[in-house]
Amino acid sequence: MDSFKLFNWGLLILTFGLLIFLGYLSSKMMKRGDEGGFLVAGRSLGAFVGAGTIVATGFSGWGFMGSPGVTYQFGAIEVLGNFFFAPAMMIAVLYFARFLQRKAVDMGSNTIPEYIAQIHGGGTMGRVVQGVAAFITIILLLVFLTSQIKAVGLLGASWLGIELNQSASLMVGVIIIYTMLGGLAAVAWTDTVMVCGMALAAVIIVVQLVTSVDLSSWEASLNAIDPELLNPTTGAHYGDHPGTVFLVLPYAFLFAAVLPFMAIRFLAFKPDVKLHKVGIYVAILGALLSLIPLVGLYVRMQMPELADPDNAMPVYLENFMHPALQGIITLFIIFAMKSTANSLLHTVASATSHDMRLALFKDSISSATLALFINRAAVLGLGIVALLMMLYAPPFMLSWLGILGTGTLLASMIGPVFISTFWQGSPWGALVAMLAGFGTSGYMMLFADVGWLIGPLTGCVVSSACYIVVSLLTPRPAFQKLSV
């Protein structure tokens, strides 16, 4: 093992120790047996930590590994699409978070499926809705988690000089440990540390890109390879028309506002948090991370025959960065991917241990300590399941699998989570909307050649229509609008 590999292992061990220590500290914040502390961090997140965990989770593995690969394959249109995530997340924080936060505090909701059940009246039908929401969340986020584990495993393997399965097992093992210890508080704290490293990595990468090649030569080289890379006549993976890329803005807004692993952060804010501060932090961090896909264009210029587009970032680091800088930046990128993986694992475990338990066996556990033990056991069990799914999954493109999971979940949840904030539907409306969104988006992503966003957004339209129509035809619970 050469000196740089030893340097990388040293960095990894030090940061693993820091992450586990943060998990231990966050576990001390929870009262003994405090399930709410595990699920929503005791509603203790401030402005910077809240913004840090939102941005880290939203960009992370997709931003650092998936989007450079997509940019390598399809060109600059992905750079534009990636940029829309920062303003979309800021809008979600400024104009949606307070509604969701106040309602959840009012009802005592500790997860998004529980929020859906409670806002639609609770009772027996509410348990059915909660169970279905939890089941859909588990299935689809396990799909997304599989892509995140593969991403972090691929990068870690080349960085440390080990096999993919060894790298993935190592990374998932540490995520399991600190998430089990501190729940959402540990996830949020570690995310905040990670996003600072991610932002620094983005700055270093952009400086290297713009100082190592003349921009006019860069443009000429890409046009010589394929004029579509810089001047697309279609929307490439987004759809047939170039304008379909602008659909990323509403998609990214709903991504931040509706998806359970993102929206749970709004439930965890302090009641008196200043959301304009959160929005400013989100905008700054998001803008920096939106520049990362440029790596794909740079590598396409330098190595136009790359066999696997998803290797654009590892190839870039290996060939165009000093080994010491490569090690540090790779560590920050691993941070990025872990920040989404831990959020997904926490959300899937919460849906399994809390929501499915309440849906199937309401009030079956009277001990809060036992409930917390079950939460932590679910983190361990589902972390192992996700690792096995990654090891035995067929080949896939990271970004496509991520959108299959998140886009279909978004289509399932838009009515019960987003529309219900402004217009109260019925439990039957929520149930039908979730199933319709799941079926529509899933089918279009798997079997229809319509682009990566058309399927989920069509699912959102179908799901929303079902939510409203079925709710108008069935009894609705009383609704009290909360002021901002």
Automatic annotation (TrEMBL):
Subcellular location: Cell membrane
Catalyzed chemical reaction(s): L-proline(in) + Na(+)(in) = L-proline(out) + Na(+)(out)
Keyword Transport: yes
Keywords: Cell membrane, Ion transport, Membrane, Sodium, Sodium transport, Symport, Transmembrane, Transmembrane helix, Transport
InterPro entries in the record: Na/Glc_symporter_sf, Na/solute_symporter, Na/solute_symporter_CS, Sodium:Solute_Symporter
Superkingdom assignment: Bacteria
Membrane topology: Multi-pass membrane protein
Residues spanning the membrane: 6-25, 37-59, 79-97, 128-149, 169-188, 195-213, 248-268, 280-300, 370-392, 398-419, 428-446, 452-473
Keyword Transmembrane helix annotated: yes
Sequence similarity: Belongs to the sodium:solute symporter (SSF) (TC 2.A.21) family.
Name of protein: Sodium:solute symporter
